[in-house]
Specification:
37% of the residues lie in helices and 21% in strands. Strands 10, 11, 12, 13, 15, 16, 17 and 22 form an eight-stranded mixed β-sheet that branches. The chain folds into three domains: 302 residues, polyphosphate kinase like (2-Layer Sandwich); 176 residues, Endonuclease Chain A (Endonuclease, Chain A), CATH 3.30.870.10; 183 residues, Endonuclease, Chain A, CATH 3.30.870.
Length: 704
């Protein structure tokens, strides 16, 4: 397999370090470095063409959410003149300027990738994105008829007039600004208008009548450009430029205990679509005079605007037509059946006989679905409990819970309705579950419930027996096809008994009478237990003994935890980090973190699992978890980290982590400059960890 190109367009400095407390990268600068790793996949020539297009969509979708959530907060601070935490020594103005510089550069590189690599790649495969001026006669007729038949009711042309009521721009909708000249007064001042591009109603990519041997496409934007003169009779169209406005996605819910939290969320969801501007993007070819007018008309400030290319909402590339050209996609990696649970006639008996570890999407999610469907059908099952954070729109799991309730079982679901951008879906599921007779419990004020656990109670020989499934990822059949997560099926009394305590706490809001000894649970012992595990390694290293920590997670930015890791490094503890996203900790910094190495893997699957391994004097402690090491996870959420006790499963986990640590194809080094250089080693063998993981598990399946 060819390794990715190591060439990259130089990026502006992304090194934003704090000057007090401890060295650290600014959180959102680190996130932008992660999103650049996504963009790297789009320009990697070893990635199939349609997958590169998909990575352009992922990059764009990520960035859109970033501006709606994170950048909105910085801009709010900037508007009111507040400062961030004193110990960070970074002003909102500095942060906003740094973010804008980085994003502007990345957007320029995005355009280069699209224009210089993707479009030529499409042409080599007979696919052409046709601009309106290049349409032939047949295609012009098609475009004009398509506009009249499908688009006319949605385009909403509006003249822009200074000091008049300004038109409302829908969140994340596409518009064209139109530069007009009255035909009867060619010397009169230019006039301006906006026209909606109805991509919220129609496909963004429209297939045109094509000559033999090629497939021609046109973007919806260019159909509007071609047809805009019909909307403004009496005017000459001088030029058009695209714009888009994203709105603040924060719900701003007061988390006091009084009042109806559910109703507050419903009200806030409506307000989200009309919130203040978080990002106004415009065609970088737009003349300054037009940009100045738009800022005045829509009451925008300089830090609200961001220049992009000719087209916006590039997350629409998710729906780029593939024309059945499978050779331009990743080769299939069909999910492997987990035979012990998928083919057994005694599902719960199999779990009672020993723990089972599932690794999706390499292994099929069918075992998880079957856990609930089997519980719904089994006459000996009396109770089913689950935490719902994010769930598929069409979910067999949710259907199984409703079936279980209808069959007379006691079914309890805790729904975290504050899961961002899933609030509406979660509320809808809550209503459906309640109608089916499920006991539904909703969010706590001030705390998110992020644990991924489920519990089944079954009568066996007249006595109750408990079964649990604990995971690093959500109960979501769709994301289980692309998110890399671990899940544990267990009947181990040490674990299932403590899972029961978590559900009792969620249902009664009464703290458990007994401490957690095996599970690490947010709001209880998660942070202190992790601190104690690091301290153990520090003490071992100080005594001259072997000390090692391996951590895999999505993000790390909690200052006390980073401070402890720095102390561990200074004591001589070997620390290896695999961090997909935000890494505020600075590895390899003299005097602080010489013993810390950090890498990040971005590939066809989203790395989502959290794995914590502590050497612990040779008696290794291995945990899987729902929690990243962020302030929100360790302080403001109910999370779980669950131990792996089975020696066979412990070895498997260590093997899989070792594969990731040896990745020399898709692994990037997180270093002081955040340059995202691909990791190099002395091996002549290309090790792409996601492929190696698949075939490792395939060999295990073949052994079974």
């Amino acid at each position: 397999m060819a390794t990715p190109s190591r060439t990259r367009v130089p990026t502006p400095p992304q090194k934003v370090l704090t000057t007090a407390v401890i060295p650290m990268f600014q959180r959102d600068i680190s996130w932008l470095a992660f999103n650049y790793r996504v963009l790297q996949e789009a320009k990697d020539p070893s990635v199939p063409l349609f997958e590169r297009i998909k990575f352009l969509a992922i990059y764009s979708s990520n960035l859109d959410e970033f501006f709606r959530v994170r950048m909105s907060n910085h801009r709010n601070l900037l508007r009111v003149g507040k400062k961030t935490k004193k110990e960070l020594h970074i002003s909102p103005k500095q942060t906003v300027q740094a973010i804008q510089n980085i994003v502007n550069h990345q957007q320029e590189e995005f355009s280069q990738i699209f224009e210089k690599q993707i479009i030529p790649g499409l042409r080599k495969n007979g696919i052409y994105l046709v601009r309106r001026l290049d349409l032939n006669a047949e295609q012009r007729d098609f475009v004009e008829n398509y506009f009249k038949d499908h688009m006319l009711p949605y385009v909403q042309p509006v003249l822009l007039v200074k000091n008049k009521i300004r038109p409302f721009l829908n969140n994340a909708s596409l518009y064209l600004t139109v530069l007009l000249q009255p035909k009867e007064a060619p010397s009169a001042p230019h006039e301006y208008a906006i026209v909606k591009i109805p991509s919220d109603h129609l496909p963004r990519f429209i297939e045109l009548p094509s000559p033999p041997g090629r497939r021609d496409l046109i973007l919806l934007d260019d159909i509007v450009r071609h047809s805009v003169s019909w909307m403004f009779p009496g005017y000459e169209i001088l030029d058009t430029f695209s714009i888009k406005l994203s709105r603040d996605a924060a719900l701003y819910i007061d988390d006091e205990y009084s009042g109806d939290l559910i109703q507050k969320i419903k009200t806030s969801l409506v307000k989200r679509q009309v919130g203040p501007a978080s990002r106004f993007v415009y065609d970088r070819e737009m003349p300054p005079s037009l940009l100045a007018l738009l800022k005045e008309v829509f009451d925008l400030e300089k830090h609200d605007t961001l220049r992009e290319g000719r087209y916006h909402n590039n997350f629409d590339f998710f729906r780029f037509p593939d024309f059945g050209l499978t050779h331009l996609k990743n080769p299939p990696m069909p999910a492997l059946s987990y035979i012990p649970l998928e083919r057994t006639a005694d599902f719960f008996g199999e779990i009672a006989g020993g723990d089972h570890l599932l690794h999706v999407p390499y292994q099929s999610y069918e075992s998880v679905v079957r856990f609930f469907e089997q519980a719904a059908r089994d006459p000996m099952v009396t109770h089913v409990k689950i935490i719902q954070y994010r769930v598929a729109r069409k979910s067999r799991i949710m259907q199984a819970l409703m079936d279980a309730a209808k069959s007379g079982k006691q079914v309890s679901v805790f729904i975290e309705v504050k899961a961002r951008f899933d609030e509406e879906a979660n509320l809808e599921w809550g209503e459906q579950l309640e109608k089916a007779g499920v006991s539904v419990h909703y969010s706590f004020p001030g705390v998110k419930v992020h644990a991924k656990i489920a519990l089944v109670r079954r009568l066996e020989g007249g006595a109750p027996k408990l079964y649990s499934y604990l995971s690093t990822g959500n109960f979501h059949e769709d994301t289980a096809k692309v998110y890399s997560d671990f899940g544990l099926f267990t009947a181990d009394e040490r674990i299932v008994g403590e899972v029961t305590r978590i559900f009792s706490y969620l249902e009664t809001v009464k703290r458990p009478a007994h401490a957690f000894e095996h599970l690490l649970v947010g709001q209880f012992n998660l942070r202190p237990a992790l601190e104690a595990l690091i301290d153990f390694e520090i003490a071992a290293a100080t005594a001259g003994k072997k000390a090692e920590i391996i951590l895999k997670m999505n993000s790390i930015e909690d200052i006390p935890m980073m401070e402890r890791l720095y102390k561990a490094s200074q004591a001589g503890v070997s620390i290896k980090l695999i961090i997909r996203g935000i890494c505020c900790l600075v590895p390899g910094l003299k005097g602080w973190s010489e013993n810390i190495e950090a890498t990040s893997i971005v590939d066809r699957y989203l790395e989502h699992a959290r794995v914590f391994i502590f050497h612990h004097g040779g008696a290794e402690k291995i945990y899987l978890s729902s929690a990243d090491w962020m302030v929100r996870n360790l302080t403001y959420r109910v999370e779980t980290a669950f131990p792996i006790y089975d020696e066979r499963l412990r070895k498997q986990l260590k093997d899989l982590i070792a594969i990731q640590l040896n990745d020399n194809v898709k692994s990037r080094v997180i270093d002081l400059d955040q340059s995202n250089a691909y990791r190099k080693d002395d091996s002549d063998l290309a090790i792409r960890s996601q492929l190696e993981t698949y075939y490792y598990l395939k060999r295990k399946a073949d052994e079974i």
